[in-house]
Design a protein that fits this description.
The complex is a heterodimer of chains A (110) and B (125). Helix content of chain A is 0%, strand content 45%. Chain A has 110 residues and is mostly beta strands. In chain A, strands 1, 3, 4, 7, 8 and 9 form a six-stranded mixed sheet that branches. In chain A, strands 2-6-5 form a three-stranded antiparallel sheet, with no helix packed on it. In chain A, a hairpin with a 2-residue loop joins strand 5 and strand 6. Chain A is globular and about 40 Å long. The N and C termini of chain A lie far apart (34 Å). The mean pLDDT of chain A is 97. Chain B is mostly beta strands and 125 residues long. In chain B, 0% of the residues lie in helices and 46% in strands. Chain B has no helices and eleven strands. In chain B, the strands form two sheets. In chain B, strands 2, 4, 5, 6, 9, 10 and 11 form a seven-stranded mixed sheet that branches. A four-stranded antiparallel sheet of chain B has the order 1-3-8-7, with no helix packed on it. Classes of the chains: A mainly beta (110), B mainly beta (125).
Chain lengths: 110, 125
């Protein structure tokens, strides 16, 4: 149940695309197609933005997209906007009804 | 409106106990697995525990096994977390969370879609 590995910070200019990686193992990310991503503003509860690797809940901007290759999942934010400045967390099913979150990535819009 | 409201947080001494509650409304509570997720001050999210619809299926993160107990009362639309033998590293905001709507009635969590506002627990002498 070790936390998934994410870069501590990623930055980009408005309009650019950025990608956040999330690295796990064959016991979590690589073993299931159950990666989710969350956006969190300071002092607020997290918000689900991607589930089942690539699915976007209703109401989430299509600028957000997810992917997975082996033990690594990725979140791409296209056309970066000022409102995208937040913390982002990945999460994966780990088997046995357990879940593991990533270490979190702070996104800065320059 | 789908709503989760946590309560029961506060300041507790190391070794102490606390019981958190999560009141659900606006959906069929008894149809969903439910979970607790915590976040230490300035830290990341950590899944803590989850429980199935009838309360007999439970899972915990290793660090709380034997100390925390998740339970539910479907008649009261409520989720609980009993925290015993508390340690300083249990200090966190505790959130209850519900999976996506498509998980209703099934053996499914997949993700954490609906979140409460969180309740803060501080373990300190």
């Amino acid at each position: 149940q070790s936390a998934l590995t994410q870069p501590a910070s990623v930055s980009g200019s408005p309009g650019q695309s950025i990608t956040i990686s999330c690295t796990g193992t064959s016991s979590d990310i690589g073993g299931y197609n159950l990666v989710s991503w969350y956006q969190q503003y300071p002092g607020k509860a997290p918000k689900l933005i991607i589930h089942k690797v690539i699915e976007r809940p209703s109401g989430v901007a299509d600028r957000f997209s997810g992917s997975q290759s082996g033990n690594t999942a990725s979140l791409t934010i296209a056309g970066l906007q000022a409102e995208d400045e937040a913390a982002y967390y990945c999460c994966s099913y780990g088997g046995g009804w357990t879940y593991v979150f990533g270490t979190g990535t702070d996104v800065t819009v320059l | 409106e789908v709503l989760l409201v946590e309560s029961g947080g506060g300041l507790v001494q190391p070794g102490g106990s606390l019981r958190l509650s999560c009141a659900a409304s606006g959906f069929s509570f008894s149809s969903y697995w439910m979970s607790w997720v915590r976040q230490a001050p300035g830290g990341g999210l950590e899944w803590v525990a989850d429980i199935n619809q009838d309360g007999r299926g439970k899972a915990y993160v290793d660090s709380v096994k034997g100390r925390f107990t998740i339970s539910r009362d479907n008649a009261k639309n409520s989720l609980y977390l009993q925290l015993n033998s508390l340690r300083a590293d249990d200090t966190a905001v505790y959130y209850c969370a519900r999976p996506p709507e498509y998980c209703s009635g099934g053996g499914c969590i997949d993700a954490f879609d609906i979140w409460g506002q969180g309740t803060m627990i501080t373990v300190s002498s």
